[in-house]
Amino acid sequence: MAPLAFALPSAAPSIEHPDVDLVSSAHNLTERTYYTTTWTSLRCDRISGYYGFGLFAVKYDFGCLCYNDVDTFCRVNGLSYTMNSWIKGQFNYQSYNKYPTGSQPICDDKGGYTCPFGKNSDGSCAQHAASCGDGQCLQSDGTCCPRGTTKINGLCCATTCRGTSNGQCYGSGSCTNGKVLSNELCCQSGWTGYDTVCCPSGQILNSAKTGCIAQCTTQQKFVPESGTCQPKCGSGFTWSSSSTNPDGLCCTGGRVCNTKVCCLTTEIESEGHCCPKGYTWRNNACQAPSGVPTAPKSRRRALNNNKRHLSLAEKSRLRIDEKLCPKTMSACPIGKESSSYECLDTFTDISSCGGCASVGEGQDCTAIKGAKWMGCEQGSCVVYSCRPGFKLVGGKECVKA
Predict the structure, then answer these.
(1) What InterPro entries has UniProt attached to this entry (predicted)?
(2) CA–CA separation, 222 vs 233, rounded Å?
């Protein structure tokens, strides 16, 4: 890291001082002048405070330093002789404590220290296959850093540093070009730091740790080909999207997503219903351009097949349907006690799927708990996707995830 380039006034620090711009607390020591091979008595202290007074005072925080390291620290970071003397003066009332080889003092006023690979029963630092020179501390990655520093993203930085950028150590608030610190990296505002990569909101680090990918929920899966997240569909369903519904739906085989429902490729969606191409949904039916209601041939066959097994009550209902409504439509009472009817296609009507809901028949697909998009296919409710917090089961229901 470049030396700390700032001019400090040759005056005593103020006791009380308003908020001022902070001087960078980052420092990157590459050498030491004092080395030890055994337990050694050292005076170490947290060096921080205000230098100067009034409007000319600046705040500094150089972390935990030992007296014997001050000369090297000031030389590496470009601090003046006056500042050197000032820092050394902070140790006048600091007592000596003994520290073992390879330890890192923590300046807790009790002689505390840490060892990267644990302590032996006698308090010395446990050894590692790698070895460091005197005045060096072994890091958790097996490399060595000068005492008073720690490894951050491959660099030996001061313990007060918060991250690295462009091969330099940075203290809190020291990122440049409008960037902010995130997990030891200088990133654009709103981005998150992952190892050596910053990712925008909604993305995370990829498995190779070389770039960012979309962050999928537990109900989604990542698709490498498109670089997007897609819903996890149940057995027999595939995910499909459209220009009018980019979030997509889970559709049964052979059907594709339209806007609110999944239709066959030979059909189009009209008012939330699937109709043959060229038809529109009006008056509770797929209407041909001439205005005559119709239904796909597959539905007509289903109606004819059902007639062979109808009960007397059902035959009576069918006669009412044929008398009051166009072919393939059911005459559903409007209210249980009403003599008024409405014509519904119970093979596709989402609120009277499979029968007239007003007389307790069929099912109201919109009442399925947790369902976001649903439809009525061949008189049976089908769920295409669920609301957040629910997952699709068998294409028929949504259960809490």
Answers:
(1) CPL1-like, PriA/CPL1_fungi
(2) 13
17 CB neighbour count, 10 Å cutoff: 16
Most distant CA pair in the chain, distance: 108
Q: Please, are residues 287 and 280 in contact by the beta-carbon 8 Å criterion? A: yes
For residue 76, give the H/E element and its range.
Answer: helix 70-76
Reported as type and span, the H/E element at residue 83 is: helix 81-89
Contact predicate 74/83, CB 8 Å: yes
- Residue 242 has what pLDDT? 87
Contact 60, 48 (CB under 8 A): yes
Q: Where are the domains of the chain?
A: 40-174, 268-400
Cα separation, 158 vs 266, in Å, equals: 68
Quote the tokens at residue 193.
Answer: 């730091």
Say how far apart CA 45 and CA 108 lie, in whole Å: 8
pLDDT, tens only, 293-304 = 444 433 333 334
Report field, pTM of the whole predicted structure over 0.70: no
pLDDT in tens, 53-98: 777 777 777 888 888 888 877 876 777 888 888 888 888 878 888 8
Above 70 in pLDDT, residue 30?
no
DSSP conformational letter for 142 = S
Give the integer Cα–Cα distance in Å for 272 and 292.
19
